[in-house]
Structures are given as structure tokens and as C-alpha cells.
Amino acid sequence: MDSPLARVILAILGGYLIILLILSVYGWISKEYPIRPNNPPSAERIQHPVHHEEVINALQLFFQLPKPEQDAIKENLKSNLISMEQWLTHLSRSDYQILCVGELHEESTRNFLAEDFFTKVRADTLLLEATPGKLKRLIERMEAGRDYFPLLDADIMRILRTAMNTNPAINIYGIEETDEQQKKQCGHSNSRDQSIAHNFWDNFQPGKRNIILFGALHCANESNWLFQNLRSQASVHLKDRMLNVRVLGEHQNGPLEAFVYFLDEIGIKKKHFVILNTNSLHPRIYEFFRLLKRQTLDKFRSVIVFRL
Q: pTM of the entire structure?
């Protein structure tokens, strides 16, 4: 049939198909060639006003203490808060085999890790929050010269490239739960981290330095999360060679921002720093910053704090 109506209908259908094709191509380009976000970090000193009252109270209590106790708190903080360079030296001299690095998936975190961590740390294995298939595609993009591509909403290209440049023989694995594993688990409680732990052991290199880079909760020493699963499955010998560390920007977390503000106000001004052992801080710090203790200090052996 070659009626005017049929030609109109065909023209409309053809137009729809062209629009769908354009949208499909645009969607593919947007997904395959995402634009690097341009969100410069705020320079505001107080970005979590809800938590600022806590630090005001802490400072009042601190300055009411006898001077010898104030001095003791300062000395404790100075000895336990070390520079990134000191921490990396300490790490290089230790005999760790498993280092679980817990991050927030943000551009500032990935930039810091690429510039100040993976440029210096020695590692034999890097294990990422990606399935093997997704990691393969990420590495293909990197090898094709791509300078930006996100993994979990933040760039991973610089970390991959830096880790490989610093450690040419490094092995990189994706240990995220696969679709097949998810189906087998049938929604069992905390099954994802059990699958991740299984994938970790499949790629673990005994006697080598294995670094896990995952979302912070997975690296928390807390029941049913990845790090706790690994500890419960590790030998006594290996347990002593496992370390979990949280990486936080000074403004990524309200309780941490309050703690950093406190440090500045009492005269302990540091650039990037590391709380070497969260169990060794002065008791007053745990009293002053109860939420930071509960959220972070109780769950991680060390905390890396990066600053603007």
C-alpha cells in the first residue's frame, strides 16, 4: 500500500527510529566516555556545623585541664599522629601481608591515593572492588591511553597507572561478588562480603604484600564485613600480618572534621597525617570525640587523614 497515510506513518516511524538511534549512541558515548567532574573542594574550615558543637565543648574541657595534663595530651598526639612519609616507612619495614584500605568513593580520595600512596607503596597484589570482567575492561581502557574512567563514581585510571608504574610486576585482581555468586547465595545475610572473601583467597599471594582497596565498611574490623571475614579465616600467623586502615579527607566526615579542628586549635598543625595506632591515643581524646571513636577509631587500626 502506497497511500499518503502509509507514507506519513512510515516517515513518523523512521523519525522515531532515528531519534532512538541518536539517543542510544549518545547514551553509549556518555557511558563509555564520561566527563571528569569539575567540583573543586570547598576551602571552608567548617563544613559540618552539626558536629562543630562537639569540638567547641572539647576545647573548653581541654583548656580547663591542668597544664601538665594538657601537655601530656599534646605529647601523646604528637607521637601518635605521624606524617604520611613516616607511616609509609613504617609500613615498608613491617611484615604485613594483607592491607585493607577503606575509602570513600570520591575524586578527592582517589586523587590523594594516586599521588601520595600508590606512588610510594610497594605491593605485589592489588585487589579492587570490581568483578574480573569489569577490571579487564578498565585495564583495556587504561592501556588504550584513557586518562579518566570511574569505578564506583570516582576515577580509577590514575590509581591503576600509578600502582603499575611503581610496581611493574604487580598483579591486579577484581574480587567483587559476581552475578553467578549472587544467584547462588540467594540473598543470604552478608553473603556479598562472604563471596568477596572467597574471591580474595583465590587470588591471595602468601608471603607477599596484598593490598585491598574497597569501600570503608568492607575494611572495618566489624562482624560480617570483609576484613572480619578474612581475619576469622586466617591462620594465627597471618592474623598478625593483617592491617586495616581508613582513608578520610578532613571534611569527608563530620566527627573527623571536628577532631582536625581541635588539633589546629591546640597547636598541632599537620598536613596529611596518619593515626598510627587508634588504640594508643590519650584517654581524653576518646572522651572528647565519642562519635569519631565509635565510627572510626574502634573499627580501624590506623587512619590516614588527607588535608586540602
A: 0.90
